[in-house]
Every structure is written in structure tokens, then in C-alpha cells.
Amino acid sequence: MSFVNMEAVSIRKPLKEARFPFNRAQSLEDAVSRVATGYFTDASIGGRFETRGVLVIGESRQGKSTEIDEMLKKFNDGTTIMPDGRPAKIVSCLLSGKVTWMSLGTEILDVLGYPLKGRRNQDYIWSKVRKYAEEQGVIGIHFDECQHVFTEGDSKTNNKFLDSFKSLLKDHRWPLMLIFSGVPSLALAVSQQLV
Q1: Is a pLDDT exceeding 60 seen at residue 192?
Q2: CA angle (33, 140, 181) in 5-degree steps
Q3: What is the pLDDT of residues 130-185, one digit of tens each?
Q4: Any idea what DSSP says for residue 32?
């Protein structure tokens, strides 16, 4: 006996797949377009440049991740071409629980298709993130549920994360635009510093 009611599935599936376009989805696309346009402009000039970030906040279960996923599908469809002739990409990483900068780098390497083997230090890990991002034309990273990076009352750790995120935005070899999404408390941690 199957515990899956296939008749119910056939009714529910189209309803769950349907999306109602909210105005905020257009606002998200506009914000990413502004940052990507700035990235393209600076990259086409050559030399050192820094890029910007996008902050997406809202209460849980309000559709932030779904809207970002839809936007990233459009962005990553191969039509956004960078000055070097390659399609630009933005990858996404879901953060859960307490993370360190080193473990975050390891997760990004997994997303880029290069799982880390053996023990490595933080500098090695992030140099590989930059290298493989550049090789793949990845110009941005979306950090979903980013509030997990910041701990309440631990300003020293929070400042280290902020400085590390800034270094990704300003990296002279391969700057990465960043998209941060999470609950409203995330705005207090990053809005004044990074976006």
C-alpha cells in the first residue's frame, strides 16, 4: 500500500508550482541589475575595482529565497555576458547554524564543484574560492539565511565577518558581488557596512 495519494499530488502540484509576481521581485531584479551593471562597467575599464552588495530582508516564510532563486535562474541563463566574453554567474549558499569563515569558504568550494580534501587553512580555502570563481565566471555569491553568521553581542566575531565580506567585495584579483538574505535582524549587522 502506498501512503502517497497520487490524486492529491496531481491537484496540489500545479498549485504549489504557481507563483504570483510581487513588486518586490522587480525591486530585487533592479537592485541586482544596478550592481551587475556597475561590475560590468568597472571590469570593462580594467584594473582594480570593487563591487557592491544587495541586502534582502523579510520575516521567515515570506518568499525571499524563492524570489532570489527565480532571479538567479534568469541571471545564470547565459545571457548576462561579462567583458571577458563569458556568461556571468551567481552561486548560492545556504547558511545554517553557527559558521566560521573557514567553514563558509569550504561550503562555497562545494557549491563551485571543488570539495575540499584534507585539512587546509583559511587563506588557502579562500584563495581557491577566488580562483575557481574566476575560472567559472562566477561574479557573485548569494548567502541565504545570512543572519546565522552574526551572533548577538559578539561584536568582535561580527566585525571579523564584516571585514572578510568587505575583502570579497574589494578583492583586486576577482571582486565578488554579494547578495545577503535573511530575517530583519540581518539589516542591523550589515546595512551600514556593506551595501
Answers
A1: no
A2: 80
A3: 999 999 999 999 999 888 887 776 677 788 888 888 999 999 889 999 999 888 88
A4: H
According to DSSP, the residues that pair with 68 across neighbouring strands are: none
CATH number of 23-194: 3.40.50.300
pLDDT-wise least confident of 46-60, 108-122, 140-154: 140-154
Identify residue 155 by its one-letter amino acid code: S
* Domain ranges (residues) in the chain: 23-194
Residues forming a β-bridge with 178: 53, 141
Within the chain, strands assigned E span 53-57, 89-94, 138-144, 177-182
Candidates 30, 88, 23, 21; CA nearest to 54 is 30
Q: What is the pTM of this model?
A: 0.85
The sign one gets for the Cα dihedral 31, 33, 34, 35 is positive
